[in-house]
Amino acid sequence: MYQFDAAITAWINTWAGHASTIDSVMIGVSTAGVPLLVLAVVAQWWVPRADPAIRHVLIAAGLSFLIGLGINQLILLFVQRVRPYEAHVTHLIIDRTVDFSFPSDHATASFAIAAAFLVHGLSRRGFWFLAAALLIGLSRVYLGTHYASDILGGAATGFLAAGLVRLAYRENTRLDRLVTGIL
């Protein structure tokens, strides 16, 4: 399995460093992608006619984001996978990072947001967020900082977090009405 993962990762990364325009786009997506997704979620809070059901999903997306990243920290206690550039699978075209590779925090964060919208039935918005999450994940492999399986692991963690939030944070509870009524 590792050879297949390394081969896919190396193939995606092969293109890095050969086209400065694509490199710049991928660096931009990797750098600004997650903050822009968070901004897109937060901005919806003040959209006219943002009813409590939409606000419930926005809170769920934020909780999924945070819980997903928390789950990643637990995983990192047990799985300490070196980055693909350290294993000489990829060549890195951005600055090195100091943490471990699996799972990808970028993928977890972006897929958690997308999954929150999807599991709460806002599929149109969810698919836009999912497309953005896929692009962010691809950019991380392209840049040489993650294996393809790191992105899949992050996606799984993001969907798990959204599922947990869906089970635990119910719409129209007293807490939900309080939180969705803020501002």
TrEMBL record:
Name of the protein: Phosphoesterase
Annotated coiled-coil segments of the chain: none
Lineage: Bacteria, Pseudomonadati, Pseudomonadota, Alphaproteobacteria, Hyphomicrobiales
